[in-house]
Amino acid sequence: MTPRLIFGAGSIGTTLKGFTYSWDTPEKVSDLLSVLKELGISELDSAAAYPPGNPWNSETLLGQSKAAEKGFIIDSKVDTDRPFPHLDEERVKTSIDRTLSLIGTSRVRVYYPHAPDLVTSLEEQARAFDLQYRAGKFEKLGLSNYSAEDVEKFFAICEEKGYVKPSVYQGQYNALQRHSEEKLIPLLRKHNCAFHAFSPVAGGFLTGKITFNLNNPNPTELERTRFRGESAISFAVDTYDQPYMHEAIWKLKEACDAVTPQIPLQDAALR
Known about the structure:
Mean pLDDT: 94
Largest sheet: 7 strands, parallel
Number of helices: 10
Oligomer: single chain
Structural class: alpha/beta
Radius of gyration: 20 Å
Low-confidence stretches: none
CATH architecture of the largest domain: Alpha-Beta Barrel
């Protein structure tokens, strides 16, 4: 089956140093959109928090480059740039209104909470999203980074109250992060809810570059990655740059090298 690709807009407008390239002007973003169109990609995954360290700039640039007018389908997520609570009715309304204003559209396709709110009750969260859904501001409700237990509770609340139910879940999934297979994915299947996987190559870790250069004192190949130097991201380093993860990479490489023709590690990770 041909994979469905959604372009993650988290790097658009970034101010992080050391990246190979930065789409930090409307002109650069317009050029990016042209390339995506040529590749047959017309869906963008955005968020109020994008890019990290400079929230709202991604959506500002998407609006300035007229992504919606050019036919791109845009998903977004609630602003989480403050301590809890961030998923009460006022916050959800304020966030989606700003997103729509910046992007220059009347609604987005999928609207997600970016992460759980440990203060606002799930019932109030569900009601907050339902109000904006019924106002026509998004087509589908999504969930992201919620535990399987909270997802199950969220569905139960929506069914009991007649609120719009989530139809998309966005979560981390790759060859090294498969915990969602145990409870979450069967639960989503039960509720006919799609799963959108992010980080399919583990932030680049599944290319093997980090593992294969562990004993290299000055690996230029690791410059501008999410694991070394100014472009390093703590979440990626803490999650993957661990002894047992490097051991897994060597085992994966052994398996990829054992077949004929051999499969590049990154290609295998995406299959």
